[in-house]
Amino acid sequence: MKQILYKSTRSDSTPVPASRAILMGLAEDGGLFVPTEFPALDIGLSQLAAMDYRGVAYEVMKLLLTDFTEEELKGCIAKAYSSNFDTEGIVPLRKADGAWYLELFHGPTIAFKDMALQILPHLMITSAKKNREDKEIVILTATSGDTGKAAMAGFADVAGTRIMVFYPKDGVSSIQEKQMVTQKGDNTCVVGIRGNFDDAQSSVKEIFGDEALRAEMAEKGFAFSSANSINIGRLVPQIVYYVFAYTRLLANGTIDEGDKVNFVVPTGNFGNILAAYYAAQMGLPVHRLVCASNSNKVLFDFFTTGTYDKNREFILTSSPSMDILISSNLERLIYHISGNDPEKTAGLMQDLKEKGSYTITEEMKKGLELFRGGYADENETAEAIRRLYEREKYVIDPHTAVAAHVYDRFRNDTGDATPSVIASTASPFKFENSVMQALGEPSDLPDLELADRLSEKAQVAVPEAVNMLRTAPVRHNIVCDRDGMKAEVRRFLGI
Predict the structure, then answer these.
(1) 282 CB contacts (<8 Å, ≥6 apart)?
(2) What is the domain count for the chain?
(3) DSSP code of 368?
(4) What is the average pLDDT score of the chain?
(5) Which of 7, 62, 113, 344 is an active site residue?
(6) 357 DSSP β-pair partners
(7) Contacts with 227 (C-beta within 8 Å, 6 or more apart), sequence order
(8) Cα dist. 156→149, 192, 445, 473, 479 in Å?
(9) Does residue 458 register a pLDDT over 90?
């Protein structure tokens, strides 16, 4: 099998194997790791259609994580995708209102982040052994709501690791916050910050880039890594579920092998839809990748104009995991459409840092042909929830509703009848207040009473991830300003 290496988006530094890229999280020059080439799927899609999720995961991930042995990789996969998911199929596909909903929320924290964050700790510990890393790995992560809980659920009490999560104190749903502040694990720490997600994410990147702090940590036996989607170990497992979705459509007779499909993905940080783009680069037959944004439509504007501009009002919405103005993973796409030009990419990222915006060239725009953009405002999001329930008695969360609205508009505007898969990124129980409001139901009840009402409405059992909050004590109650984050890191590590 061909060896796939990873290099930075911002320089011609020496490429590293997958395990090293996973351990580092971020390249030393501040760039993101990308594969030096895209390997082609080496097994027929019809053969993959006969496999379960674990089988497909191995066949996809072995092509990208080439320095992992078969035993190592299959071991990581087996530990990640088992009884911790509430359905044997791991990722069900449900047809509703002319589209297929890929339910990515059946893991322990009821959000799509589980698909990658249940396996990342195992990939990271394996990577540490392979690289003879003897330092304690410190996972430092900013979250817009879902990554934090999913990362902690994955890393809690994993030997040789600590995990620290920063989240915007007033920028996540009530259930999301409860999930984080009740997290068990002696190696976990959660801090709310007075600010938005972009503040948290930018500060985490600055802490990562603090060479003096890194040196001090190394002396004390610590090494930073990341569980954010900037880590290639997050991105690779996400490619799997797009390939899996295609093979399920093949298995149920919706498509024939080689037919193209559309993927509609609600995204703020761009990692989820980038994984679909990577799947297409590996040979998955994709017609369109529809990027769905909420009112913070910085990505929609980028795909429409070629200019990325974060200089705008930050809007708090009912889909808070997409309330993002700096889409970190877009840097990887910029690198690819620039002809893998690190100098060009670094220049554009510098423009973003200094001016808050950048504009790609006409030549680079040609690389966006696979993509289409759309957005939904708050009223359209609520209407999408209400409409799908009235038509199908199927309840979706606000993020999925953004995608549902964008897909309806895309289908109406283009007449595109290609079979389409909508990435359903979270359980409606994670955003029960917004969902119940959209359905015209009382929403000013206590969280867990609201969950019971939603269960009756949706005819779906309350997930265990929510049920357990009924008795879970609060374990984390620290709140700080953005400029106090580094001090909190020091306190957590005792340095």
Answers:
(1) 38, 39, 40, 41, 60, 63, 239, 243
(2) 1
(3) G
(4) 96
(5) 113
(6) 309
(7) 117, 120, 139, 141, 147, 151, 154, 155, 163, 234
(8) 10, 19, 31, 16, 21
(9) yes
SS3 assignment, position 92? coil
| 292 assigned to some structural domain | yes
Average pLDDT over residues 40-46: 97
Question: How many residues comprise the chain?
Answer: 495
Does residue 477 lie within any of the structural domains? no
Residue 239's Cβ-side half-sphere holds a number of Cα atoms within 13 Å equal to: 25
Q: Which residues contact 458 (CB under 8 A, 6 or more apart)?
A: 395, 428
Instruction: Determine the Cα–Cα distance for residues 291 and 299; give it in Å rounded to an integer.
Output: 8
Look at the block and give the residue holding tokens 């994984």: 275
Whether this prediction's pTM lies above 0.90 is answered by yes
Residue 87: the pLDDT is 95
Q: What is the pLDDT of residue 1?
A: 79
Pairing of strands 357-359, 307-309: antiparallel
C-beta of residue 400 within 8 angstroms of C-beta of residue 266: yes
Torsion, Cα of 259, 37, 124, 400 (10° steps): -40
Does residue 353 form part of some domain? yes
| 3-class SS of residue 297 | coil
The CATH number of the domain where 346 resides is what? 3.40.50.1100
Q: What is the pLDDT of residue 431?
A: 94
Structural contact between residues 264 and 292, judged by C-beta atoms closer than 8 angstroms: yes
Distance from C-alpha of 254 to C-alpha of 267, rounded to nearest angstrom:
26
- Least confident span in 19-23, 130-134, 356-360, 409-413: 130-134
Over 90: is that where the pLDDT of 392 sits? Answer: yes
Residue 101 contacts residue 400 (beta carbons within 8 Å): yes
pLDDT in the model for residue 146: 85
> Would you say residue 321 lies in a domain?
yes
The DSSP code sequence of 449-495 is HHHHHHHHHHT-PPPHHHHGGGTPPP---EEEEGGGHHHHHHHHHT-
Which residues constitute the domain of residue 347?
A: 93-99+234-455
Torsion sign (Cα): 317, 318, 319, 321:
positive
Angle (CA) 286-123-244 rounded to 5° is 25
Catalytic site residue 297?
no
Please report how the helices 330-337 and 271-281 are oriented relative to each other, as an axis angle in degrees rounded to 10: 30
Q: Do the Cβ atoms of 263 and 371 come closer than 8 Å?
A: no
Q: Are 187 and 161 in contact (CB under 8 A)?
A: yes
162 vs 9, 159, 186, CA distance in Å? Answer: 27, 8, 8
Tell me which amino acid residue 108 is: P
| Percent of residues, the chain, with pLDDT higher than 90 | 93
